[in-house]
Amino acid sequence: MEVEQSNMPTEDSTTKQEDARAGVAVDAELAKDIMSRRFQPSLFGPEIWEGYIFSDLEIRIKESTDLYGAVLWPSAMVLCHFLETNQDKYNLTDKNVIELGAGTGLVSIVSSLLGGKVTSTDIPDVLGNLCYNVMRNIKGRSKYIPLVTELTWGQELDQRFPRTTHCFDYILAADVVYGHPYLEELMDTFDYLCQENTQILWAMRFRLDPENSFVERFQQRFHLEELYDLPTLSIKLYQARRKDQKTKYHREAAA
User: Fold this and answer.
1) How far apart (Å, rounded) are the C-alpha atoms in residues 198 and 196?
2) What is the per-residue burial (b if ≥16 Cβ within 10 Å, else e) of 141-176?
3) pLDDT of residue 5
4) What is the pTM assigned to this prediction?
5) Which of 135, 159, 190, 239 has its CA 20 to 30 A from that of 214?
């Protein structure tokens, strides 16, 4: 005797579908909240800028469309939103913070407004606009004035940031991983700057296969935890720490 199979969903599958729908709703709501922090100026003057609201302050960012690093990408807003709304667990007050690929400076600015001692870094071509944005938004608002300085990934790290004098509590990065030829140099920079107690907070927009493979290789050196997954924006936010408690640089120093 054949038993007719029911097409009715099982309790388990129904629960999974409900969880999936709830996850989509949460993602959409969070993405909406993050993107709502950006506003356009009501009047356009001689300078074109975009406005953002973080730490209850208006932040004005000037972009330069001729360079990737001088354009603000949504990953920076995701990271800023996370830092602002999770200060109980990730408190930047009086902490040493370095941002890689700071671009237009929004993450560095928000980190400084949240009390961090910020080192804001990028390639030389970007530094002029970066410094301008940082200074116009920080002056008179922040306990510490960020240091804006050159950092070309993988180059002169031990000279520019000696590990005996430069110990960072946080490494911040927003959208530094994309289809460029310097992923190995970026990996080496993460590896050099991240010491035993350093936390990495890294927001990334997924576009191409090389980015997925970078994450896989990154996990060989670091413990990686996903903090945000925002399919609406194609962005994930990670926290990372070193796997080895004593880095090879510590071992070399002791040798």
Assistant:
1) 6
2) ebeeebebbebebeeebeeebebeeeebbbbbbbbb
3) 54
4) 0.84
5) 159
